[in-house]
Design brief:
alpha/beta; Rossmann fold; 12 strands; binds NADPH dihydro-nicotinamide-adenine-dinucleotide phosphate; binds oxalic acid
Length: 311
């Protein structure tokens, strides 16, 4: 039987995806959006940022797969086909890339490399005291597949690590907080905050001026979750006033980040272009193919998105 797959992604190596799926599933017909002769034939969609309203136009669709760990780019569509599972990626390779990215920037702020860079511009030779990792309070917001791993790795490195999540589920070696009061409490003890939250109705603008004001003076932010979680103007105000010392941003409300956005030129902001943990084009198609086989057998896919919760 032929599996008819719709592919909606501007990026990526399409031939590689088609070949990888065929290796796992056998007979696959790969349709690259918008070139789909008969929408009724499509069984599964692999998507990144599908046009709003598009996915409901495939009457026999059996599953929608995010070409990424997040699913907010799919869930922003209010007209998703009812009852069709939305599945996201949890790929060990990307999880490790995310953790390595977090580690790099935590060390950057821990050892004050931003300050040395700024001092270099003025020829200033001024060695700072080096704190031990145990003296550095790091917090991870969102303790899922990626955030949980980042927090546990940082704790294993000796950082004074805490986390915050919706459920507040325990993770070995971490102090875990939950709820609005828990968020304020955890922010108050955070020299470095890593945002690993998905974009949902509840998390949008969570890190606003009021929340950023809870941070101790000189705190730094690493945003690897979603741009929607951060109030952009509040971050700039906190950096400009000296309340915060720096920020590293990988994700943005609108991507690519518009050339006019003040983040680009801010001296205390480091920008990477949603590059912290890119989808691995070898392992991701394999994982999606395994989930397609599960759905064909009537089993649950590995990481079905809860449409009510939004992640
Ligand atoms: P998971 O779904 O596994 O984890 C999400 C975490 O966020 C959970 O711990 C969840 O809490 C918590 N959370 C969700 N909503 C709330 C809330 N309202 N209040 C408190 N906690 C909340 O996701 P992943 O760890 O796999 O990925 C997280 C996000 O990272 C993705 O959704 C994506 O946006 C982003 N990402 C970014 C990448 C990049 O390259 N920059 C690459 C990959 C992912 P609980 O445990 O209680 O459910
Ligand atoms: C994401 C990803 O969801 O890159 O951001 O996987």
């Amino acid at each position: 039987m032929t599996t008819e797959v719709l592919f909606i992604w501007e990026g990526g190596d399409r031939d590689r995806w088609a070949r990888a799926l065929a290796r796992e599933l056998g007979d696959v017909r790969f349709h690259i959006y918008p070139d789909v002769p008969d929408k009724a034939e499509i069984d599964y969609a692999l998507v990144w940022m599908p046009p709003i309203g598009e996915l409901q136009t495939y009457p026999n669709m059996k599953g929608i797969f995010s070409i990424g760990a997040g699913a907010s780019h799919i869930l922003r569509d209010p007209d998703l086909p009812a009852g069709v599972p939305v599945v996201r990626l949890v790929d060990e390779i990307s999880v490790r890339d995310m953790w390595l990215y977090a580690c790099y920037w935590v060390l950057h702020y821990h050892r004050q490399f931003d300050l040395y860079r700024a001092n270099q511009a003025g020829g200033i030779w001024d060695r700072q005291e080096v704190l031990t990792p145990a003296q550095r309070r790091v917090t991870v917001l969102g303790l899922g597949a990626i955030g949980g791993r980042i927090a546990q790795e940082l704790a294993a490195m000796g950082f004074d690590t805490a986390g915050w999540s919706r459920s507040g589920k325990e993770l070995h070696g971490l102090r875990v907080y939950r709820g609005p009061e828990g968020l304020n409490t955890v922010l108050q003890r955070s020299d470095i905050v890593i945002n690993m939250l998905p974009a949902t109705a509840e998390t949008t603008q969570l890190l606003d001026a009021r929340r950023l004001a809870e941070l101790p003076k000189g705190a730094a932010l690493i945003n690897m979750g979603r741009g929607e979680v951060l109030e952009d103007a509040a971050l700039i105000a906190a950096l400009d006033s000296g309340a915060m010392s720096g920020a590293t941003l990988d994700v943005f409300r609108t991507e690519p980040l518009s050339l006019e956005h003040p983040f680009w030129t801010h001296p205390k902001i480091n920008i990477t272009p949603h590059a912290a943990g890119p989808t691995n084009e070898d392992s991701a198609p394999r994982q999606i193919a395994m989930d397609i086989l599960k759905l064909e057998r009537g089993e649950m896919p590995s990481h079905r998105v809860d449409l009510e919760r939004g992640y």
